[in-house]
Amino acid sequence: MQESVIYQDIFQTGFERGFQRGFERGLKQGIAKIIIRFLTRNLGIISEQMEAKIRSLSISELDELVDAQFNFTSMDDLMNWLSKSQN
Fold first, then answer.
1. What pTM was estimated for this model as a whole?
2. Are 42 and 29 contacting, i.e. CB atoms less than 8 angstroms apart?
3. Could you give the CA distance from residue 87 to residue 84 in angstroms, rounded to a whole number?
C-alpha cells in the first residue's frame, strides 16, 4: 500500500502542507520577537497585552509594523498603530 501512487501523493501533500504551516508559524514568531525586541529597546518595556497583540498579527501586518515602527517616538504611537490594525 505504501508504494501506491495515491498513498504517496496523499502523504507528500500532507507533509508539504504541514511543513508550510510550520514554516509560516515559525517565521511569524521570529518576526514578532524581533519587532518586540526593537520596540522595547526604543520605547521601553512593552506590556504583555501589547506583546500579545503584536504576536497575533498576520505576517503581512507584522511587515507593515516593521516599517511603521521607525516613525514611533512614544508608546502611544505603538498603541495607536495597534488599535488601527485591529479594526
1. 0.75
2. no
3. 6
